[in-house]
Design a protein that fits this description.
Chain lengths: 320, 409
């Protein structure tokens, strides 16, 4: 063994130069393949990488817009935002709170509905699936406008219904907690369809024999759900948690239209703050906040990955 | 004269009407309006960065003119405006001037007055307003109208935004308040007691619970107007254009409105009005047809015909030869008679020339915005002491304005 190691280490390692040459030779050999995949990379470079690098440079600069040059200010934009922005703290707390309750409740709701739709003998499953998916294909702008009318304190249908059944009307869009509930309802209504479809697809891919075997072994429905269904949904769940997290931290249009961040900035999000900075001619700070939001997403996603990767094994046992 | 003018603005716009009239006079010119509202800033910024694509004409708020003017992206129309300087309302011209040069054609002057429905006052058994009605008496009348006629004499939504902001803006202006000095460098918001007293006056209206609680421009807002649930409102002249689009029959209030000067705030009887909105017509340095642009600006706000067209829509053009002779003849269907123009003329005479809408004005958000939301409603609800709230609000304006001015350099 020692001899083998010795002889392996005796083989001269290729110099960096020759490695590059080797790579270029390989690329030339597969030049037609590279030619076919190049359009994606060219488009990605122009519309993905370049704007990101440009935006990062902007976040470190002062720029009055137009065609004037950027002036390097180092980390000043980041420091100014993190130390003295009068609205960033509130926007951060709001965004995290919304993430904290919309993410679990949304996924739990979608999972429950998907499990119900997955019942073998359910008739009209296609119809239900279409109904749940419809909100997703409806314009978010229209949905927000319709919701704002449904939830109007005096004239909205929801309050009219509450009054009909003898309940007090709720100031849905004008008091902090009801406004946050309104945003939650809107996002659940819009987002559940896709989540249900993805869960349903994953549920249908689970081998029925596993449930049958568990049944023979005496497992009840709850045990089957937590010990078979949930663990086997882990990859899908992980994907959905991460994409939903990214979507919720970047929450903008629906809230802008439904509550405009109010009342008293209680639904004002990080993304709204970023857009307000940009609209207010503060491009450098807007870009810096964009990267701060990106960093927040990265950190949260990393934590989620670390936690979820270790929580469930395929056998369904909790492990940490 | 030949050329194509592209205008970006919201639907139902006075500049669109002016464009149609301008095309008739100049067959070689085409005027196209692109309906753009919320995404205007984004699109303009993209065009400015790209070096082309910005509209030839834009309708900007006063603080936007100041910010864009400082950035050097607006077409310099100094020579044109200076020709007419003496014929234009001075208070409005100041808003188009940046560092001594004009970067926009002074557009809509917007002195607020109080609009009322005399039939609703009568229904509530409230006497017609005396010309010098005091604010306290106005609120007493508003409570009676609410109780007796189920109608409101002012708008005060639970969100505190839109037209509700006038309950603060009007006393702030009347009492000599200012967000900043003319340069926009020094924040004056908490100097003197105008802001504190203005918040106190607004709180009196809030506590009276007699305002219309509806979000501005929402369907319930228009519904309330048409059903007579709004019997009065502080309002700028440009609201007439929007009102007339909605209020089209006598049953919904057409021809039933009147207007008076806003109530007297103690110590604020010299300037019983205020400005809200009131945009300025600008172009960008990118325009390929600067001469046509200038001709259009001149026609729209420095000729009798152009001023008439925009005034027929509902705004008040700043051209004095027109204002002093033709304002009284403007086509309108909202008010019972033409006495509203007397009120408007009176309000024009009460406007301040020392009220500045520098970039800081936008930052402060006294006409609504995140900083307003942060402080105003908590003060209304008694959750935040008014003096302390105004001080904190001013500190935030200072910090935000410094960053904004820095980024405009």
């Amino acid at each position: 063994m020692a001899q083998a190691i010795q002889s392996a280490s005796a083989i001269p390692r290729p110099k960096p130069n020759s490695r590059w040459r080797e790579l270029l030779r390989e690329m030339w050999k597969h030049r037609v393949d590279y030619l076919f995949i190049s359009p994606f990379f060219i488009v990605f470079l122009i519309f993905g990488i370049y704007p990101m690098l440009w935006g990062f440079r902007l976040s470190l600069s002062r720029w009055p817009g137009g065609q004037k040059p950027m002036e390097w200010v180092g980390l000043n934009n980041y420091i100014g935002l993190l130390t003295s922005d009068p609205l960033l703290g509130k926007a951060f707390v709001n965004t995290m709170l919304m993430l904290g309750w919309i993410l679990p409740t949304g996924l739990a709701f979608a999972l429950v509905v998907a499990v119900m739709l997955n019942v073998r003998k359910l008739k009209g499953r296609g119809v239900f699936r279409t109904i749940y998916f419809l909100p997703f294909v409806t314009s978010g702008v229209i949905v927000a406008i319709v919701f704002s009318q449904f939830l109007d304190k005096d004239y909205g249908w929801v309050n009219l219904l509450l009054k009909q059944i003898g309940l007090e009307p709720v100031p849905w869009l004008v008091e902090p907690i009801p406004a946050q509930i309104s945003v939650t309802l809107l996002l659940h209504w819009m987002g559940s369809g896709t989540n249900i479809l993805i869960f349903l697809g994953a549920l249908q891919a689970i081998d029925r024999e596993l449930y049958e075997a568990a049944e023979i072994d005496g497992a009840n429905n709850t045990q089957s759900f937590f010990r078979i269904t949930v663990p086997l949904l882990r990859p899908v769940l992980l994907f959905m948690i991460i994409t939903a997290t990214i979507g919720l931290i970047n929450l903008y249009a629906q809230v802008r239209l439904l509550t405009n961040g109010g009342p008293q900035n209680n639904t004002y999000t990080l993304f709204m703050r970023m857009m307000d900075l940009i609209a207010g001619n503060r491009f450098g700070e807007g870009a810096a906040l964009g990267f701060i939001i990106g960093a927040i997403i990265l950190v949260i996603t990393f934590i989620q990955l670390r936690l979820l990767r270790n929580w469930w094994t395929v056998e369904g046992k909790m492990q940490r | 004269m030949k050329g194509e003018l592209i205008f970006w603005g919201h639907a139902d716009h006075p500049i669109y009407d002016a464009g149609q009239a301008f095309m008739k006079l100049n067959p070689g010119v085409t005027f196209t309006q692109v309906e753009i509202t919320d995404e205007r800033t984004t699109k303009v910024e993209a065009a400015l960065a790209a070096g082309s694509g910005a509209p030839d004409l834009n309708w900007l708020e006063a603080n936007e003119v100041q910010a864009y003017g400082r950035r050097g992206v607006l077409l310099d129309v100094d020579e044109l405006v200076k020709q007419y300087e003496e014929d234009l309302v001075a208070a409005k011209s100041a808003e188009a001037r940046v560092n001594g040069r004009y970067f926009g054609m002074p557009g809509d002057i917007t002195p607020n007055t109080l609009w009322v429905r005399p039939d609703i006052l009568e229904k509530a058994g409230v006497a017609a307003f005396d010309k010098n009605i005091k604010y306290d008496d106005f609120l007493t009348a508003a409570k009676s109208v609410k109780e007796q006629a189920d109608s409101s004499l002012y708008v005060f939504g639970a969100d505190g935004g839109g037209q509700s902001t006038l309950m603060f803006q009007a006393p702030f202006y009347a009492l000599g308040g200012n967000v900043s000095d003319e340069s926009g460098e020094e924040i004056l918001f908490d100097q003197g007691d105008a802001a504190v007293r203005a918040v106190e006056y607004a709180k009196m209206a809030w506590d009276a619970k007699a305002g219309l609680d509806a979000a501005w421009f929402s369907p319930p807002y228009w519904g309330a107007i048409k059903e007579g649930k709004l019997g009065g409102t502080y309002s700028p002249p440009w609201m007439r254009g929007f009102f007339e689009t909605e209020v089209k029959t006598p049953e919904t209030g057409q021809g039933k409105w009147a207007s008076v000067i806003i109530p007297v705030y103690e110590g604020g009887d010299k300037h019983r009005t205020n400005v809200w909105g009131g945009a300025t017509l600008v172009s960008y340095t990118q325009t390929q047809v600067p001469d046509v642009v200038k001709k259009f600006m001149e026609y729209t706000f420095a000729t009798m015909d152009g001023a008439q067209v925009t005034a027929d829509w509902g705004i008040v053009p700043p051209y004095l030869p027109w204002l002093t002779t033709k304002l009284k003849d403007v086509n309108q269907t909202l008010f019972a008679d033409q006495t509203w123009t007397d009120t408007l003329n009176e309000a024009l005479g009460l406007m301040r020339t020392d009220f500045y809408r520098a970039p800081a004005y936008g930052v402060a958000g006294i006409a609504g915005g995140p900083l307003y939301d942060k402080y105003f409603l908590p003060m209304m609800k008694g959750e935040l002491d008014i003096k302390q709230g105004v001080k904190q609000w001013a500190d935030d304006i200072r910090s935000e304005n410094k960053k904004l001015l820095d980024s405009l350099k």
